[in-house]
Structures
1.
Amino acid sequence: MISRKEFITMSLDLNLFFLRIMKEHSFFLETGFTPRDENMGEKAGMFRQRFEQLLSEATALANGNVSANALNSRQITTQFTLEAERLTNFYTGIPFNLDLTRREEMLQPGGFGMQNARMEAAVENLDRRAYNLTAELVMFKEHLLRSVRSCKMFTFNYPLLIEHILREARHFMDMLVMLVRRESINRSEDLLNQELFWNRQMAEHAKFIAGLLDPSEEDLIETARMFGSEFDALTAEAEQATRQTMDIAGITADSRQETESLRDFKAAGTKGLLECKIQSIILPLLGDHVLREANHYLCIMGVC
C-alpha cells in the first residue's frame, strides 16, 4: 500500500506523460484518414481535444506535486516540444494548445503542493476519468485496426503503428488500475516486465523511422534499422528472462545503454526535422513524441 504522497506524485507523473501521449496518438490517427472516412478523423479529433482537457487539469494539479525525476527526465516536454507543435500546426492546420505546453514547462517539483485528502480525491478522480477516456480510445483503435486489416478502410498509418499505440494505451490503463488500488507502479520486481514492454516499443519506433524517412536518407535508414534489430534482440532476452530465474542486471545495463543511444538518435532527428535538414514524411511532433517515450523509459531504468 503506497502512501497518500506517493499516490499523488505517481499518479500525476503518469498522467502528465501518458495523457500527452494519448492526445498525440489521437492526432496521428486524425491526420491519417482519407476524405471518405472524414467522420473517423472527426472522432479522432474529439479524442485529441478531450485528452488535451484532461492534460490541462493534470497540469493544474501537478505544480508542486510532480516529481523532480519526471521533470528532469524531459518525458513531459522536451526542448523541442513547443517548436514541434508550432511546425506541425503549420503543416497540418490542426491547432495545439501552446499555452498548455508552456505551463508544463514551468512546473515545479514536489515539496510545496497540497497533499491532503481533498487533493488525493481530486487525483483519484483524474485517474478514473483518464482510464475511462483511454478505454474509449482503445475501442476506437481496435475498430480501426480490424477495419484496416480486413481491407475495409485505408489509413496512412501503418497497421503495426495502430497496434503499437493500442499497446501503449492498454499499458497506461493497467498502471492506472494499480494506482487506484494504491499499488506502486515503480516496484523493482516489475522492472523486467517494463523492459520487455519498452524494448519492443523502442524496436518498433526505429522501424517506423526507417519506413518514414525519404529513400535518399540511406545512412539514417541504415542506422534506424540497426536500432530495430538491436532492440529486437533485447526484447527476446527480456522475454526469455521472464520465463527463467536469472539476474536481469546485465539485461538492464544493455537496455539502458542502447536506449541512451537511440534517445540521442531521436533527438538529433527531431532537431533535423525542425531545421528542415532531413527529408521524410515524419511530422516534427512524431519525432518529439518518440523522444519523450525514450526519456520515459530511461527514467524507469533510473536515468532521470
2.
Amino acid sequence: MQSARIIFVTGTDTGVGKTVFASLATGSLRHHGFRVAALKPVCSGGRDDARQLHRAAGKVLALAEVNPWHFRGALAPRIAARQENRPLLRRAVVAHIRRIARRFEVVVVEGAGGLLSPLGEDFDSRDLIRALGAEAIVVCPNRLGAVNQVRLVLAALPAATARQARVVLVNPQQPDAASRTNPELLREFMAPKRLWLLPWVEI
C-alpha cells in the first residue's frame, strides 16, 4: 500500500533547474525530520542528476534504485531506449515509484526534460503525475518568456493537478526587467502562495 506523499518536479524544458530544486527540497525535508527518498527514474546521457539526488537524500537508496533506467544517448529517453533495444513502459516506472513510496514518508521524483518530453513508449511526465496522484512542481528559469512557458505547462497538466501545482521561478545571476516583473505578472494568473522564487544557486 502506497503511504508516501509523492512530489513530482517537472519543468518547462530541459536544463531549467529541476535537479537543483529537487535536491534542495530533499535536503530541506531531511532537515525537518522526514524520511525522504529522491528519484530520477529515467534519464539519458549523463547520470549526474541522479547522483546529485542520491547524495541529497543521504544515499538511503542504491543509485540503481534512484535511477533504474539510464540510457547512454543524450537524446529523448524514448529514442535512447529504442537505440539500446530496451523499450520502456509506464507501468514499470509507476510500479517502481510505488514500491519505493511504501518505505518513505515523502518521495521527490524528478522528471526528465519538460512535462511532455516522451520518456517511454507510452508515457511522459504528465502521465506519471496522473498515474501516481502526485503533487506537481513546475520549475522555470525566470527570464523573458517565462510567463508563457509556465502557463502552457499548467494548461497541459490535469485540471485538478494544475489547480494545486506550485511554480518555481529560478532567478538568473543578473536580474533584468523580465525577471523582476515576471512574478507580479504570473500572480495575476495563479494564487500568489503557489509561486516560489529560487535565488540563483549552484550545488
3.
Amino acid sequence: MTSQAPERLFLLDTNVLMHDPGALFRFQEHDIYLPMVVLEELDSAKKGLSEVSRNVRQVSRFLDQIIGDADTALISKGLRLNNVTHTNGGPKPNGSLFLQTQLMADHLPETLPGKNADNSILGTTLSLQKEFPDKVITLVSKDINLRIKARILGIHTEDYYNDKVLDDADLLYTGINTLPADFWDANSNNLSSWQKNKTTFYKLEDRPVNDCYPHQCLHTMGEDPFEALVDHMDVGSTTLKIATNYRTGHNSIWGINARNLEQNFAINLLMDPDVELVTLLGAAGTGKTLLALAAGLQQTLETKHYREIIITRVTVPVGEDIGFLPGTEEEKMAPWMGALLDNLEVLTNHEEHNEWGRAATSDLLNKRIKIRSLNFMRGRTFLNRYIIVDEAQNLTSKQMKTLISRVGPDSKMICLGNIAQIDTPYLTETTSGLTFVVDRSKVWEYSGHVTLRRGERSRLADFASDHL
C-alpha cells in the first residue's frame, strides 16, 4: 500500500499574476492562496496602458468572477476554480482559491526588519506553515531574491514554470542541419530533380534528416558543399530547393553580400515571399539587423513587393531611463533605433557615393520606412508591409502573439534578437517570447528560422566577444 502524497497549497507572488493572468487556472488539482498584500500590489498597478497593467486588470476580472456574491464565510472555506469559464487553455483546474481573510501573526526573524511587500508575503507563508503542518506550502515567485530569502527561512519555493518553452535554451531549434556524409549514396535510387525559374529542386522519398521542418536549412560538408532548403513536405516525400548563393557580387541585395553559411541561408529566407515569418537569432555583430534591412529595402524599393517597411522594438533601456521625450511617435522612438539607423547609414553609403545621391536616398527612405512604437500596435492591421521587430527577446509570448496577429495579407514579419541579452525583468532564455515563437512556428509551412553564430562586425568586435 502506497502512502498518499501530502496536499499542496501554492501561495502566488504578485509578479506571477502580472506575468500571466491565467496563472490562477494553471495549478490543476492544487489549491492556491493570495495574501492581502498581493491584492494591494495588484490594485496599485492597474492603471496605465502597459502590458503589465492590462494583465493586472485581467486578473481583477478573473477574481471578480471567482468570488461572485460569496460572503466572508464562503471565501474562508475556499472558492472553486472550475466554476469560472476562461480562455487560457489547458484542462479545467480542480482546486480552490483561498484569500487572506484575517490578520496573521508575524513570524519573521529580526534579520528581516520592515514591512515591505516581500517580507509580508514571507510572514504569511510562515504563518500558513504553522497553521497547516500537514500541507506542503509552496511560495511561487518570479523574483529570484524573494526565493533566496524564502529558502533561508526554510520555505519551499519555486519559480513559475508554466511559461517555460524549453528545459534548456541549448535545445532551441537552430534552423540549420548538416546532411549525413552518405546522403547522395543513400538517396540515389529514390531521387528526382528538375528546374523551375532557374532554381533546381530535388525530391526524396524520405526525410533528409530525422527532425525535418519546413524551410529548414540543410548543407553538406567538404570541398563541394551542397546548400538547400526544405521547400515542401508530403506524407512520404520531401522536396528540397537549392539555396541561392548571395556571397557573390551579382547576387547582392542592396549592395550587401552574405559572408558565411548562416547569413546566406538567412538571406534566402528573407528574400522568399512565401516565407511570411522569419526569426533570426544571434549575438551582436552577426548581421541580423543589416540583412533584414537590406532585404526589406530590396523588396520595397527595387522589386516593389511590399509597400513600406515598418520597424519597431520594445523600449527597455540598458542603463538609466532617459525619461519622457517630446515630439512625434517617430521622434520619441529615435533614441531606441540607433542600431537600425547605423545599419541604414551603411546601406545608403553602399547605394550612393556622392553627397547629393545619399541625401536623395535618405529622403526616399524616410518616406518608405516607418518607425512605430509597440504601445500602439493593438487594433492595427498591416497590409502589404515588411515588418521588422528588433530586440524581440525582450517581449513576452503574449506580446509576440499580439504583434504577429496584427499582420495582414501580403505582409512579412522579421523577428530579430539575442536571447543571451534579455533586459526585461522576469524573462529568461527559456521564457522569452522570441524563444516561444521560434519553437512554436518551426512546424508551420510558411515560417523559417536561422541562428547566426559567426560575428562579422569587425576584428576588434570579434576579439571583444571572445576574450573580454
4.
Amino acid sequence: MQLLRTLCQIHAPSGNEVKMKEFLLNYVQEHQGTWKTKPQLIHGEGFQDCLLLVFGQPRTVIFAHMDSIGFMVRYGKQLIKIGGPVAETGYTLVGEDRQGKIACTLVADEEERELSYDFAREIERGTELVFQCDFRETEETVQSCYLDNRLGVWNVLQVAETLEDGIIAFGCWEETGGGSVGYLAKYIHETFGVTQALISDITWVTEGVQAGQGVAISLRDSLIPRRSFVQKIIRLAQEANIPHQVEVENAGGSDGKELHYGNIPWDWCFIGAPEDHVHSPDELVHKSDIYAMVSLYKLLMQKL
C-alpha cells in the first residue's frame, strides 16, 4: 500500500494533473524493466497532460483519471469547489502559492452557502487547495482522501506488471466533467482500432453495493452501456470465481460518458471497488474489494 499512499499525496486537482503525470512517467520508466511487456509511452504535444501506455497488440483500453476534487481560491478568502468535494468546517486544506506552502482551515457557512478559508495571510487567487492526506491502513481497509481515483490509478499499475496486449490511458478533468477522454478515444481508435474500454474508477457503497463483498461491475449509472458487453464481463467474473457485485444506479457518471456520447462505437464498462465517505478526506475502501478489482482487470485484459 506504500505506492497508494504516495499517489494519494500528489497534488493533482482537475486541470493541474502535471505532477501526477510526471510521477507516473518516472514510475513506468523505473519499473518497466521488470514488467512482462515493455510499453510504448505516448504523451506530449497533442496529449496535454495525459499519458498512454501501449502494450503489444491491444484489443482493450483501460481509462483511469489522474485528477482529484478540491477547491480554488476566488477573491479575498472565498473558495469555490473543483468538482464535488464534501465541504465541512474544520477540514485542513493544503497547497502552495508564490509566497509559500499553505495549510489552512476550511470554513463552510451553510446559511449563506459560501466557502472560505482561515489562514494567517491572504492566499493568491487561483491557488488550488486539496484535502490534507491522512492515510490510514488496517488489516481490512485503507482510508484516505483521493482514493477516488488514485486507487484506480494504482489498480492499472498492478495490471501493467503482467499485461501483454492492451492500452492504459491516464486522463484528466474527470471530476469536472471530462475533457480528455474524447480525444484520447479518437486517437486510440484511429491508431490501434480498439473499441473496447474498461473504466478503472471507484464507485460508492450503497444499499445494494456493500464494502467487502467484491468489486462492483456497473450495469448502469446515469448511462446504460451495451448489455451484451457487460454481461460478458459478469460471466467471466463468475467463471473465475472473482468476488463481484452488480451495480444498478440511476445517477452518476465517469469517463464512460465521453465514450458513450462520442461517434465511435465503443463498448465500455465501469468496474471499481466501492468506497464509503465519498469525496471527503476519509474515503474508505475494503482491501478485499481492491484485490478483487485487480484480479478482474487482469483477467479481462486477457480474455476480452
